[in-house]
Amino acid sequence: MTISEFEVAATTQRSRVPSLRRYAMTPPRHFTVEYAINPWMDTSTPVDTDAAVSQWEQLLDVYRSLGHTVDIVEPVEGLPDMVYAANGALIVGGRAVVARFAFPQRAGEADAYARWMSAHGFTPQETVHTNEGQGDLLVVGSTVLAGHGFRTDPRAHTEVAQLVGMPVVSLELVDPRFYHLDTALAVLDDATIAYYPPAFSDDARARLQELFPDAIEVATADAYVLGLNVVSDGLHVVMPAAATGFARQLADAGFEPIGVDLSELFKGGGSVKCCTLEVYR
């Protein structure tokens, strides 16, 4: 590396500034895989619920050690996927849109998260069409990136834009392994994303290249361990420990990757971001 290249890298490193965040999480005390609604779920694979709780608690500890606020949403028996809190809502700028789930097995989660939102000063608003919260609705800067193709109905994107008062960019997903946007794209700060190009349609890839020409493109090996299912505070990127190649890319870009093991929760098709509902300011 030349001196000038080193200076550029050092400047990039210094420019990454974390900000304190507020999250909501639900402990996986009732977690199991008793139905299959995505390609990662296999009802014949044993699930260790105690191990899932222990791994989830480690994630909680990481957030708190970084200074973030974490609200606990109590789990409801009979809703094994409620641990995937991100799917429950989009909350941004004091406005809250509760999920309308595609599958009846998860419908009760929307009621549970709506009750939590109401108890914490938010007025949960509903869409007519299916939306699966921050699974498919990710805030980057002043824009919402919105996935569709497997869960969220693209007609809900217009509703969400009106409810939260923000522009929404629709992105079509084409690989069922990446059934939610947050499995194929990671928001790293207000201007930086990472994504897995094969998960998107040609039009969606073109749109992402237009909006984020400096985006990090993640390799298949990292995408297939849900490596993009991360939570970032602008500097620290909490991510699946198995995505080692992506971790190196993040470090090269000046971020600080923090790997966690959520292998039990991976059996349900989710990881770090799935377990984390951010209350965007």
TrEMBL record:
<dbReference type="InterPro" id="IPR033199">
    <property type="entry name" value="DDAH-like"/>
</dbReference>
<keyword id="KW-0378">Hydrolase</keyword>
<protein>
    <submittedName>
        <fullName>Arginine deiminase family protein</fullName>
    </submittedName>
</protein>
<comment type="similarity">
    <text>Belongs to the DDAH family.</text>
</comment>
<dbReference type="Pfam" id="PF19420">
    <property type="entry name" value="DDAH_eukar"/>
</dbReference>
